[in-house]
Each structure stands twice: as structure tokens, then as C-alpha cells.
Amino acid sequence: GSPQDGAYLLLSQHASGFMVSQVLFAACELGVFDLLAEAPGPLDATAIAEGLGTSSRGTERLLEACVPLQLLDVDTRGERAVYRNSGLASAFLTRLGPRSQRAMLLYLGRTTYRCWAHLAEAVRQGGNQYPRAFGVPAGDLWAAIYRSPGERLQFTRGLQEVWSVEGRRVLTAFDLSAFPRICDLGGDFFQDPLPEADLYILARVLHDWAEDKCSRLLARVHQACRPGGGVLVVESLLDEDRRGPLTTLLFSLNMLVQAEGQERTPSQYRRLLAAAGFPRFRFQRTGGTYDAILAGK
Fold first, then answer.
1. What band does 3 get if pLDDT is binned at 50, 70 and 90?
2. Is 0.90 surpassed by the pTM of this model?
3. What is the SS3 assignment for the chain?
């Protein structure tokens, strides 16, 4: 094939990327992976449709699409195809798996996906898309993100799931034994009094906010922090030339459609932290999606 054929194939893959996401989200939402995890053996499309209460014609097409995506494995016995969870699905997609990512995937499918439908508008306006996607005001970010108790639970469950995979890497990136009292920062940290501690963990906190709010928060942390203490910042770091990683560049666009901030390079975080009184700066790539920065007072 010509170079043009390769380019057209790449274009086709980019254009249908949203369909791949929706196959994954729909299979999670309908309970395909949980049903197969609990079944005594592989099941055919008819049995799966009965178990899920879904149409046989829709179920069969969804299952077939899951196979080349490595979400399901298939065996053909005579005329009959039977399905079971792939290794990927067993590890990450069943409700009860210790490293399940199901809650986050459902959140992405129900909330993030709807905000991304308005990406062009977000680029036009420079603001998040909660008003367009859900009819809620965008001004108070957490009121928008936590717009119902169910939504709040889904979101916080999803965040916990991410750390079941990424947490060990970021918490072992540095030796933290010098910090006897550690505070994992959450809640309304712009208003609430902050407890005194030796180390404050800000995990995926700073990326939500524009520079001025990051500076305000870091100044509050500096004030509460004991002498010789510091902050552990956990974020997905952009390369200094801002050419990658692709996942982090997409996360940065997500901060546009869903929040107020952006993903940053190590030197952008270095400047923010130094200006707030944390000049001793080290960062560590973890090999995962999230990296670790340790900055000392």
C-alpha cells in the first residue's frame, strides 16, 4: 500500500476512536464482564443476552466488537461462538476485582464523554462545559462536579480505583520516612483550616486549577507546614517540550472541558512551588500515568 493508504487508515482509527470508547463503556454499564466472571464457564450470545436482559441482535454485535479490542476471548464450537473475559477484563473490568476500574469507566462514559461532545465550544470559550452538557453553572467547580450524591460517589470511587493501580508507584517514588506526620489533602482546602503536618500529599489537585488558585492553595499549605516539611505532588507530567505523553495532553484538554486547570511540565510545577516557598524540588517519573514531585520548605 502507498503512504497515503497508511495515512487514511490512521485517520479512520482516529475518527472511530469514540466508538471504541463506547463499546467499552456500554459493556461495563450492561454488566457483560460481571456476568461472565460469575458464570461457571464460557457463554454464548443468547445466554449472555438472557442474563443481561438485552436484545440478542444488539448483544451479539457488542460481544463481537469486544474480541478484537481484547476485552473478551472467543471460542467457536461448531456454529456456536462462546465468550469469556480476557485477561484485561478479569484484571480491571469486573466489579469485585481488587484493581477494578469499572467505576471510573462508568464515570467517563456518563459524564466526561458528554462534556467532550462540546470540545470545540470549550476551545472557543476557554471554559468547562458543564452548562452545555448538564445545564449546571460552571462557576463553582465542585458544585458542578458533585452535582448529585450519586455523581459524587461515582467520581470518588473512580478516583480510588485509579490509585489501586497507580498508588504504590507514586508513594514509593521517594523515601518519605523523614516525614512523621502526613496529610492527604482533600475537602474544601481553599476555606477549611489545614491541619499541621510535615508532608502534604496533593494528588491530582493542582491540575484542576488555574495558576492563581494553585498559588493560593500552596501558600496556605506553606503556612500550615512544619519547618523542614514539604509537599508530595502527584500529577501526570507533560514533557518539557509539550510533545507528549499523548495521555497527558488529552488529560490537559479534559481539564479544559471539565475543570479550570491544565496538566503542566516539571518546570512549571517547579516555578509554582518555589514561588510558594517550596524551593527544594525533585521529580520522579514512575513509568505509570502519574508521576511524583517532592518539594521541600
1. confident
2. yes
3. CCHHHHHHHHHHHHHCHHHHHHHHHHHHHHCHHHHHHHCCCCEEHHHHHHHHCCCHHHHHHHHHHHCCCCCEEEEEECCEEEEEECHHHHHHCCCCCCCCCHHHHHHHHHHHHHHHCCHHHHHHHCCCCHHHHHCCCCCCHHHHHCCCHHHHHHHHHHHHHHHHHHHHHHHCCCCCCCCCCEEECCCCCCCCCCCCEEEEEEECCHHHCCHHHHHHHHHHHHHHEEEEEEEEEEECCCCCCCCCCHHHHHHHHHHHHHCCCCCCCHHHHHHHHHHCCCCEEEEECCCCCCEEEEEEC
